[in-house]
Amino acid sequence: MSWEKGIINLFNFIGSIVCHQKPERTLMVGGHLLPVCARDTGAFIGLDIGYITLLFLRDKDASGPPNLFLTLVLSAPLYVDALGQLFGFWTSNNDLRLFTGILFGMSLAPFLIYVLSPPFFKGKIPLLKRIQPKNADLNAKDSWFGIKAIGTNIFISILLFAGVKSTVGNEFFLFYWLLSVPIILGIAWHFFVLLPTLAAIALAHHVKHKIGMRSG
């Protein structure tokens, strides 16, 4: 087995942890099926790019949450399309799965970072310190990631969709790596780093609370 095939098999194994990997719902790029389905491809790449845009588009001095209405509007198409297909109202396609996934990921990134910014979590999660708001206040009116920033993310989502779609069916092997590596990094970060870190923080807080009660 070549090193390339070995890495592809590893990527597919990691992808199988979070995705059904049905071939008819998975994009063929660079001569290989991507590690996850079209919807998950969009979601993880959208999350990755969404985190990057936070470096440039967030209001560093603001405290209020991202626009909750627009966040819901942008994430809703994924649920509507997935549930509509699940209950047999229509048959989705990979373009729609990809685009709704990208919108979901791009809209979720700022919301997720904001949710993880209160003192309980702030400063305790690797890689997030630089993009977290200084002071998260749900009642503040100055949005940390406002309408203009979300609008820019929508535009980036359209460009991202067009870029990924242009690689589908293309046999150039580099396209596979350009897409699969960010997908795997996204899976690794969220499931192997973020979730265990959150669990460890919660456990440490619980133990500290228990010790405090006993000593009191």
Summarize the structure.
With about 220 residues, the chain is an all-alpha fold.
* Percent in helix: 55-70%
**Strand residues, percent:** under 5%
Whole-angstrom Rg: 19 Å
Order of secondary-structure elements: HEEHHHHH
Number of E-type strands: 2
Reported for the largest beta sheet, the result is: 2 strands, antiparallel
The number of distinct helices, counting runs of at least 4 residues, comes to 6
Mean pLDDT: 91
Segments where pLDDT lies below 50 for 5+ residues? none
Rounded to the nearest angstrom, the distance between the terminal CA atoms is 61 Å
Describe this structure in words.
- The chain has helices at 3-16, 38-57, 68-86, 94-115, 147-167, 173-215; strands at residues 28-29, 32-33.
- It has 216 residues and is mostly helical.
- The protein has one domain.
- Helix 2 packs across helix 4 (94-115).
- The radius of gyration is 19 Å and the shape is globular.
